[in-house]
Amino acid sequence: MAALEEEFTLSTVPLGAGPNGLLGVEQSDKTDQFLVTHGGRTVILYKVSDQKPLGSWSVKQGQIITCPAVCNFQTGEFIVVHDNKVLRIWNTENVNLDKVFKATLSAEIYRIHSIQGTEPLVLFKEGAVRGLEALLAEPQQKIETVVSDDEVIKWTKVFMVFRHPVLIFITEKHGNHFAYIQTFSSRTLSKYTLFHGQEEKSVIQNFTASVDRKFISLMSLSSDGCVYETLIPIHPRDPDENQRVVRSLLLKTVVAGNAPSGVALTVLDQDHVAVLGPPLPASKECLSIWNTKFQTLQTSRELPQGTSGQLWYFGENLFMLHGKFLTVIPYKCEVSSLAGALGKLKHSQDPGTHTVPHFVNWETSRGYGFGSQNSEQSKRILRRRKIEVNVPPPAFEQLLSTIKKDSEKDIEVELCKFLAVKRTPDFHAIVGDIVLELLGRHTTEPSFYPRNSLMQLIQTHVLSYSLCPGLMEAALEKTDVQMLQLCLQQFPDIPESITCACLKIFLSISDDSLQETEINMESVSDCSDPVQEKMDEQTEILQNGFNADEQNCDSCDRKLNQKPQDAAEETTSCPVVPKRAALLNAILHSAYSEMFLLPHLKDIPAQHVTIMDWICLLLDANFTVVVMIPEAKRLLLSLYKFVKSQICICSELNKIEVSFRELQKLNQEKNNRELYSIEVLELF
Amino acid sequence: MRLCSVFCHSSFPEYFSSGMGEFKVHRVRFFNYVPSGIRCVAYNNQSNRLAVSRTDGTVEIYNLSANYFQEKFFPGHESRATEALCWAKGQRLFSGGLNGEIIEYDLQALNIKYAMDAFGGPIWSMAVSPCGSQLLVGCEDGSVKLFQITPDKIQFERNFDRQKSRILSLSWHPSGTHIAAGSIDYISVFDVKSGSAVHKMLVDRQYMGVSKRKCIIWGVAFLSDGTVISVDSAGKVQFWDSATGTLVKNHLIANADVQSIAVSDQEDSFVVGTAEGTVFHFQLVSVTSNSSEKQWVRTKPFQHHTHDVRAVAHSPTALISGGTDTHLVIRPLMEKVEVKNYDAALRKITFPHRRLISCSKKRHLLLFQFAHHLELWRLGSTVATGKNGDTLPLSKDADHLLHLKTKGPENIICSCISPCGSWIAYSTTSRFFLYRLNYEHDNISLQRVSKMPAFLRSALQILFSEDSTKLFVASNQGSLHIIRLLEGSFKHLHTFQPQSGTVESMCLLAVSPDGNWLAASGTSAGVHVYNIKHLKLHCTVPAYNFPVTALAIAPSTNNLVIAHSDQQVFEYSIPDKQYTEWSRTIQKQGFHYLWLQRDTPITHISFHPKRPMHILLHDAYMFCIIDKSLPLPNDKTLLYNPLPPTNESDVIRRRTAHAFKISKIYKPLLFMDLLDERTLVAVERPLDDIIAQLPPPIKKKKFGT
């Protein structure tokens, strides 16, 4: 559930009103530290949690900052542009901006983008994009013109897609909007015309965008107060042709139409957007959080002193002007997953930090019949205690340094050594760290994929999804179904979106490549062997449904009878090969909540629909829908019978328990009569 | 009956020359003994000892270093229900109870040093300051009283601000500046200097949405970082910030009361016990691998009890719990145990490590000792014979002859019946009783011997000589008295005074069948052997690291057999003043590992009148005859074979035979002795019979909703 927390003011100095007051807020390379660029001459580095500035830099009188300062995540330096063409690069040790590195370029800069994982990208007002390094090597290089005359850049953003940056910018010319997508992996620039659809008259006031694997979802807030969504493919089929994309209504009237002052929109996550503006024509300005999936207002906060139509979202904080002060409102949205509902939450990770989210020691709660009540995680952590830091064993240090530089073989050897050592109470956290370290190297060095080591670590049974976020993503990327299967079996807290991504891969992987992979067939062992043999001979003939849990009674009967299947039972036959069945079983056995899984299931492509019909039946993803399907009638009936019999069993068991207790009492009375006896004993 | 026994005897040929032979066993299960429930446990880290108090006021001291042996006990008292127990500096033990008295125990002389009224009504809680020199008691009237512990007494210092209801739990902050006191519905934090309440933390009465009448704070623990942990009757474990008086964290762990809490010295783990019999372990675990931030996480539940866990303790390596079901459970923490040896096993102590039963061999009588009465039973008889395992038809059933109730509120410390069956003696803390029994056909008459001398009171152990003419009494001052018994009267013969400088009490006595030697043992020093004829100390068996659990002197050879709590058995020749050859051999070779791993001590040793090579001994779970003539078993040998040998030639049988002949048929075995050459008596106390006499436990549904 999305929630806004108590707001606080960041700057004590009042800012000039309007867009001139504040140029931008950008992340720095340290968690919790943000660069705030004031319109005019000043850049201030704030530590948000402490609400205090760590440093402040100004340009000389007469100069004017023209685009927000950013942090180069690769070097930790800050970059700012003044007077449109002059770059200044400095770090926290510098005091005077006048004395730091300076580069004057040949064209005017619109914006510098800097995000984790790539060098800063410079977008020029004419639409050209350059990497910072190339630009600094030759500052006076000629910058080409991309956009036409009178075409003005209105908005821009950069994303990382498959470890490569993708830059989008929106231009306007005579009331028409164009989107340009610059990809750096293939060095292509594609142009799209944003087609307004029916709402021709409205003026677009603000943009935001998020990225999926193949699409950029561009959202725009129009003057009619509605939010529209436009899907722009990242990799166009024909990059040279000017293509049109149509926008569709996403949210209706989130702000009052034709709002007098600025409105703003920003994407928070895949289901939530934050909107700044007056909800009704006469009302005061508000910050509202909307759920786009359910079209509902989640929460809102009134800003009685007005705002400026500027909104930034980083980490867990929303930044905006409230009156004349820069205000921060922390925003939290717990991931909608069964794991989340149970309190095993994956906390959003700030880049560059090395935190392990709240954990559950699954090992200790297993094997005792007491459930997992020890997952009672309070969001409030006990007061910080000055206890000495838990020093990880030296084998751990050794292993970490091995992971940083040595070969996969060496890592495996080192890992074996490490795992042989006695387990400490924080073993799960250490294993999580090792996985993160391995993944970290995998991200920087894509050829490095220490599969064996990862598999070994997963099999320690102490990992959870929250302990090593990114592991399943990496496996998804590599289509490593074996590892995915293992993760599904081991992790108790996989978000439904990942479960669904696994399902997609399991359904789309070809039978040939499945044959080559090693998959744990335990879950289909009861039918795999004979089926496997038959499959090899003639793949047309299919045998029993593999899910013994689901069709318990039926399959038992069938096994007893050993009769070939007749046509009437076709619906329950298994349309997939056993290996795929084993993978699908892993999904079915994982912890998911159908309510949250259902939206993701919609994304499953149509070619798998036949399988989906069948799997839907098993998933029971949407009970009300299933109830309506005539095919489900039998299943429901048997389910009903099963539950009823289970209740009967429970009540009978209780009766038996009572009877046993009575018997025990009688037995004791009988024993009482045998209080004394004389017996013969022979010792050998 | 004697006749029949002789008849059976003569009907068996003596072919069991190498074997142990066949016995008729009187299997007795009518000893209706129910241990008292455990009320408090207190662990002392310095001495590694555990004090346990029971609902009848008995206090027991267990030595955790000596195989959990119950080395001392203080008898209970009807009006002295102990509610709190704690150790102070210098290993001094204090208790407080419902009669409002603070009691200090003398661990050397095994008596009560003094009792002092705290003048606050019943005492519910007690805590010794971290430095060990101040004692705090919480009373019925809502007062918290501070006492100064002086070298020989305690002295009242002052009252803290009085609260409106009884103080059920107390805990000191490790710095000694503040205390937390649990009452009804709230917890108070006091400043020790001013004695005033700094904070009052109200506890939610709600229990699963239902408002209970009261919420009783059964336990509190004050940690050095200022956190107060409380356990209460609503099933909650709560963490409070004592600086602000606010609730930090709440764990609902039970549907019933959480009654006890104990924190480890390192404050990295604690244990709580619930009324459902469950014990939960909480540990402070780091949230991330390389940060100092840690969180309390409930890690392990243990269900070793059926009833309320009234008391818990936390030793560096184990969780200790006890409650209404009378068991003392010691659960080692596996991660703290370096070597996975037998010390890492769970211990469940149910029965006292001393004898409650004595036997008159001549008249086939058994004397049972209870807290406030004695029972005398005569065993039945049979004329039938049978083979191994047969139950023989009774020609005469066992008879309950006598029910002897004590006068006064004190528990019986020890009792004994003479071998001839004509004398019964017992002692409480303040009085010694001697009775003469007369048997006329089926009638039995009892006559108390009056005017017992004052020095006899408070005996720790009583023993009659084999011919029933002498009575030996070990008093709690370390002295041993010898009394000559005459028909209906007595004469004080001699008193052996304790060795100069020691006040250690003698707990175990043994006399030689010829009446010449008396062996006596305390809890730590060696065994002293006295010459009764010359009335002087004959020798002292060298002290051994582990306490003596049983001793006996063999007929004819006068070898003293001593069993220790580490399961070692020594044989010491009294005439030669040295260990026997057999004892040296077995020490050289070592006992079988399974023998050493037994977890109950040997409580009785006896001998066969016709087979000098045999030693009979038993613990709670086995009975063993050691045949010294046979080779000793080594660790590869099968120590205990429950199945009779079948189809094995005599040669194989003889080759595989070893000295230890063990039977595990009778258990839990409280007493076993030889009545005559072919008759044994075994007194069992099945656990089910004890459970049947306890109040029903909280019922938990096992199936369904």
TrEMBL record, chain A:
<dbReference type="InterPro" id="IPR012584">
    <property type="entry name" value="NOL11_N"/>
</dbReference>
<feature type="domain" description="Nucleolar protein 11 N-terminal">
    <location>
        <begin position="1"/>
        <end position="332"/>
    </location>
</feature>
<dbReference type="InterPro" id="IPR048897">
    <property type="entry name" value="Nol11_C"/>
</dbReference>
<dbReference type="Pfam" id="PF20998">
    <property type="entry name" value="Nol11_C"/>
</dbReference>
<keyword id="KW-0010">Activator</keyword>
<dbReference type="InterPro" id="IPR036322">
    <property type="entry name" value="WD40_repeat_dom_sf"/>
</dbReference>
<keyword id="KW-0805">Transcription regulation</keyword>
<dbReference type="InterPro" id="IPR042859">
    <property type="entry name" value="NOL11"/>
</dbReference>
<keyword id="KW-0804">Transcription</keyword>
<protein>
    <recommendedName>
        <fullName>Nucleolar protein 11</fullName>
    </recommendedName>
</protein>
<keyword id="KW-0698">rRNA processing</keyword>
<keyword id="KW-0539">Nucleus</keyword>
<dbReference type="Pfam" id="PF08168">
    <property type="entry name" value="NOL11_N"/>
</dbReference>
<feature type="domain" description="Nucleolar protein 11 C-terminal">
    <location>
        <begin position="397"/>
        <end position="610"/>
    </location>
</feature>
UniProtKB/TrEMBL annotation, chain B:
<dbReference type="InterPro" id="IPR046351">
    <property type="entry name" value="UTP4"/>
</dbReference>
<dbReference type="InterPro" id="IPR015943">
    <property type="entry name" value="WD40/YVTN_repeat-like_dom_sf"/>
</dbReference>
<dbReference type="InterPro" id="IPR036322">
    <property type="entry name" value="WD40_repeat_dom_sf"/>
</dbReference>
<dbReference type="Pfam" id="PF00400">
    <property type="entry name" value="WD40"/>
</dbReference>
<protein>
    <recommendedName>
        <fullName>UTP4 small subunit processome component</fullName>
    </recommendedName>
</protein>
<dbReference type="InterPro" id="IPR001680">
    <property type="entry name" value="WD40_rpt"/>
</dbReference>
